[in-house]
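INFO  loader      accepted 1 record
INFO  loader      residues=704
INFO  predictor   begin
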Amino acid sequence: MNEALCLPCQALFRGDVDWNDEEEWSLTLAENRPHHSSLRELQDCGLRDCLLCALIWHEIPPHDRENWIARDNEIDLNLDKTRQRTLQRSQLFCKLETSQRSNGMSIKIHSTTAPPLDETDLEFGVDFRLYHPGRHLNLTPVKPLGPCETTSSPAALAHITHWVVACQMAHYECRSERSESWMPQRESWMPSRLIYVGKADHNVRLVVQPLEIRRYMTLSHCWGQGPTLKLTIDVLEQFMKQIPFNTLPQTYLDAIMVTRHLGIEYLWIDSLCIVQDSTDDWQRECTQMSNVYKNSYCNVAALESIDSHGGLFSARDPKLLRPLIVKADWRGAPNTMWFTKLQLREKHYHETIDSAPLHQRAWVLQERLLAPRNLHFGKHMVYWECRRSIASENMELKNKSNSCNSVFWWPKDTDVREALRTWCSIVTTYTRARLTYPKDRLVAISAVAKETKRILDSGLREKCTYLAGLWSCHLAEQLLWYVRLDSGAIRPPGYRAPSWSWASVDSEVFISCETERTLLVKIHKAMVVSSLNDEYIQVTNGYIQVDCHVWRLPTGSYAEEVIGQGLNLRILWDTYDMSTNPLSIALHLMPINFKLSLDIFYDPGQTDDSEILHGTLSGIVITPTEDHQRFRRVAKFLVHAFPWEPPFRELPASHEAEGEWVRCIGDELLEQRLAIPRIEDQSKMIGVEEQATQFWSRYLVILI
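INFO  predictor   done
INFO  writer      dumping tokens
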């Protein structure tokens, strides 16, 4: 236990600490404590026997290590309190703290010439964390690894075999539609091309129309910026005879090795199975991505390789993968056990995979979601993921607590609203990743979209239509997407999607799929047009016809001036330039839905927090086109209404009064206090059903 620590590390968990009895788990060292005399000494101690020093050392980025070690021998000239000149060498100091709200115990190591008084005194620092089983739930025991210094070791490959066999034997939900002998072959679907890898002594070649093959594997990888081996029209016939082994990049070679190890003879790699200089072939194959991955036996993911030459496997220090358990022996605080986070929580398992270089590539998300099994080759170990379970080399198989891809396998049990919420979550993850070509915004998620449609159609009486990243069912709520505020979002030149679709902007996007709200609009018609006869891949036009209320914003002012009228009005612009430029264009508010919520608010004048019913009006900001007959979206807006606002003081605090709250927002806040007139009657007024907002004029607006 603590015997695995050096004396400076042991001292961190002894002596006096400041413990807050009123706030559970609030603890700090009484003072910053000296650690090792230099970063080099920290490294040497980690190499010898101290596991905590080794883990902290590897937490420091390699570039920073070099810079900080270079300063170890520097002597700093300082003035002490008596103004005497002194010569001092830098030393490492430790600060340890945790609190009820913190994410684990923070061990902060700093290099400075004296115990730092504040953050400005620091020359460098690293923050390492330990976790307590009583505070941090969902812990999973880990097991030490044997002497395996690479992820291609026999022990690592044995884990892979065990996971695959256990899944194949017991997980019925992980069996693809064609890969298991017991399942009736409704369709004999296979990719157009596969790579034959055979046994270890066989040549590698491209197979076209492989109809009689039962199993194949797939590869998820980063292409990288440099040249890589790929299929072109010129080499197609040559590759059908043989793909020279010495021309294959390392990632492909390693994937072939894993495929052979599992007894599979065929492998699908996008760069070698799609003709890269044929637009027709690329478009045709892109329509089949859903089938390629969901029918694969297992997907191999090169998590850490930034290009096709990085390979799957990596060297590692098995010591760093050992579980570290520390027993605290403090005075003035409970003495407890603390653990490293390494694979102790399912959340950390997903964080490790999600943050890897591979998953910064947007195309890869649908590959991971659709494949029935995934082998993730990481920096330190191999990870397993199938439709039921997850595992790693030091963590036994365990069932997933939740998963985005589980919705794709059990349509009978999936509620339409749950499927939509899953789609919205997937879109946020997808838009956070990078695309080499922004024009691929729709096609790179098309496979997941097709599977989502299958689920939605199974739970609806009428078929759901895909509309450039949104769905016709509950479409109004999905119009309320918004971009991450600091993303520098832009709308690229050229047409990619209608302005009301998140696919029209380059940014991380968040979509609201809350359907338990009062709708203030009615969608009469929605459609998109594709030149390829496949609306999942490319869109050339589209519009929505909306029956709605509309108010015009004053022009000539800045957005901040409109918001800063003492109102709780917030505008979330679709592109960053709209938030800084004057509102020189005509802008209109289109309210879409309203909700009364009961939330807890902190009131400084009261001893207890208060439960307050407040209202939120959500909608989009639109601007007319040149012909003044249609509109484009430019932002999302929110109006928050609280009972202490004058218009709402006399209103009933109940959900039955939603109509009255909406009336006050429209008439009092938007019209009287902002002096925002209603839009001119330049579009045809239509009759609508009686509802809470019947006192407003309604218009038929076309969004493009």
